[in-house]
Amino acid sequence: MTDLLAGLGFVLTPLPLFWCALGTFLGIVVGAIPGLTGAMLIALTLPLTYYMPPTEAVTLLIGMYTGGVTGGLITATLLRMPGTPSNIMTTFDGFPMARAGQPGRALGLGIGASFFGGMLAWVALVLLAKPLSIIATRFGPFEIFTLVMMAMVLIASVSQGSLVKGLISGLLGMLVSMPGVDPSAGQPRLTWDVHQLNSGLKLLPVLIGVFAVSQIIADVVELDRKYERVKIAGKGILMSWRDWKAQAVNLVRSALIGTWVGLLPGVGASIGSVIAYTTAKNMSKTPERFGKGSEEGIVASETANNATVGGALIPLIAMGIPGSVIDAILIGALMIHSIQPGPTLFLTNGDVVWAMIAACLVSTVLMFAIMSASAGLVARVSLLPKGFLLPVIMVFCVVGSFALDNTMFDVWVMLAFGLVGFFLERAKIPLGPFVIGFVLAPLAEAKLRTGLMMTAGSITPMFTRPLSLLFLLIAVVMLIWPLYGEWRRNRGDTRVADETIE
Amino acid sequence: MPDGSNPRTDIGVCLLLIVVCAAVLWETRKIPPGSFEPLGSAPLPQAVAGLIILLCLVVMGRAWLVLARRSERPREDAGFEPRARDAAATIGLTVLYIVAMQLRLTSFAVMTAGFLFATIGLLVRFERRLLPVAAIVALIAGFGCQYVFTRIFVVDLPGL
Fold first, then answer.
1. How far apart are the C-alpha atoms of A271 and A438, rounded to whole Å?
2. Residues B47, B48, B51, CA angle at the centre, nearest 5°?
3. Which residues of chain B neighbour A167 with C-beta distances below 8 Å?
4. Does the pLDDT of residue A84 top 80, yes or no?
5. Which pick of A141, A224, A363, B3 has the fewest CB atoms within 10 Å?
6. Judging by beta carbons within 10 Å of its beta carbon (0-12, 13-18, 19+), is residue A42 exposed, middle or buried?
7. Inter-chain contact A190–B154, Cβ cutoff 8 Å?
8. What is the C-alpha separation between A400 and B157, in angstroms, rounded?
9. B106/A415 Cα distance (integer angstroms)
């Protein structure tokens, strides 16, 4: 409790509070511009945080994270274009409600729900992060290796699209992390005699390439896309007491779903929002209203996506396993500041951890205030001409990659991964598993090799240690489940076809 | 394809990935076996590259089946004309910008302003009424970036 209060005390001092507010505001603005995402903003901001103390850096980045998830609500409601993927479900009901003459109410429900989701997940973060980290300190190398494997399979299996493509993406991320001097053997591998590769491919240029440059290219392709726009009236932004009461069950249920989904390694806000929306529809007394402007739909989607922010920070802080793609970038931010994420983070860098937790709370409150006060203004920002915006962002990408080590090699790496990200997306290969694989592969490899050295090359402990076996079993189930679902669907289709013929 | 992707794109991307993984497998032949530990440096990259190749073959097989059945979805009308050429030109201009910086042809501000003017011009289809705005944005952003990154963030920017 003392540590938490100290963290809150730190974030509420003028400079960190300014960074938190700036981060939240920028996150909301960027989230509100279709095509730009919180992940892109955070990846581009990382180079600028070298010059800040780590506590202030994480305060800024957590603000961006919270703002980025929420900002997309504005365009999802007013333009039928989700600002970020986590707001897709909001589009289904937010836009019809706005078009029916209630844009302020649609936004108000979304803002109130986002606030509630963020707060409940923050409580879970405070209650669970430390106990989990204490449990995680007892993990041996095989437990950590199988946990990482489980995270990889989990994110591949729940990524939108096919499981096989999710796995390809994760494995490709792992492969990309392997060039460089092997820390166990001290010899270079996969360097093709390019000396710049001896230190491996750095996280930041790869992240900027995959998230920012690929998005710029995709946005240029879709530059002429037109959006239908609903103008917002100033009235009715805040949820009334009656609304809170009417939506209470939906709010709590969706927040719990969002927090739980966030807790699962590698699964982010988009999935949380989809599950909460579907559950709300299935439990609703008026499911027919979903997709036509249902208040429950907006509340479920927005509560859950914001709840994943706090939920996803739990595995990051407790185990060093990213709960979402943005958390993978946050791990990169910690590494840039020479902080090794993992179960001992509370002991080695307690100030940073408590600053993160406090920033999560303060940014949620700030998000609520900023969104309530300026949703209409932010909606106008979303109409900035992209022809002017995208080239400027490209300059930031170049400078951000260069500033890491003052080498042009990193800039070329960034550009190359921009193209890789663009083509992977064209083939519907999700980028989330790629980043998680890239961040977690070195940890997984190091633990596997340490474990094998301890057991003289035997992998038996992987199957005899209870936790390790549990993680493996979950991974296997997560691999088989989607294939089983596909088989059942195909069987159902065939049966329907047979019955039609008869 | 069930995920809505174009089977031809799937085949092209997977072929490219297979080539990359084959190159990785070839490169791992140079790695000597581990002397102090059981696993060594090569098996993991080999296993990962091998798995990617296997999964790519699965995706390609499915894509071929879709093509063979001619059940490829008709291209949906997106309601706008995709600007693929402009995207390629943007990448081309970025490459020129990076090369210019690598060769330190002139100051960072001038190179950035030039890149921004050319790229913004391209994206607004060189509309006459927007070109002066593009020039102003390019100059402000070019010289502004130089000021911010050198004076505030103390980055040693590439350029004269």
1. 21
2. 85
3. 51, 55
4. no
5. A224
6. buried
7. no
8. 10
9. 22
Q: What is the pLDDT of residues A1-34, one digit of tens each?
A: 788 888 888 989 999 999 999 999 999 888 887 7
Provide the shortest C-alpha distance from residue A223 to chain B (in Å). 7
- Which one-letter amino acid corresponds to residue A411? V
Query: Encoding tokens for residue A227?
Result: 């959006």
What ipTM was estimated for this complex?
0.92
Phi, psi of A130 (to 5 degrees): -70, -50
Long-range contact set of residues B60-64: C-beta below 8 Å, sequence gap at least 24: B60/B10, B60/B11, B60/B14, B60/B15, B62/B1, B62/B7, B62/B10, B63/B1, B63/B7, B63/B8, B63/B10, B63/B11, B63/B14, B64/B7, B64/B11
Q: Which residues of chain B have pLDDT under 50?
A: none
DSSP A465: S
Distance CA B75, CA A252 (A): 42
Quickly tell me which residue has 């073959």 as its tokens: B57
The amino acid at residue A384 is: L
Domain residue limits, chain B: 7-68, 84-152
Do A150 and A471 touch, CB atoms closer than 8 A? Answer: yes
Cross-chain residue pair A429–B49, CB shorter than 8 Å: no
Chain A residues with CB under 8 Å of B158 CB are 402, 408
Q: Which helix (H) or strand (E) holds A497?
A: helix A466-501
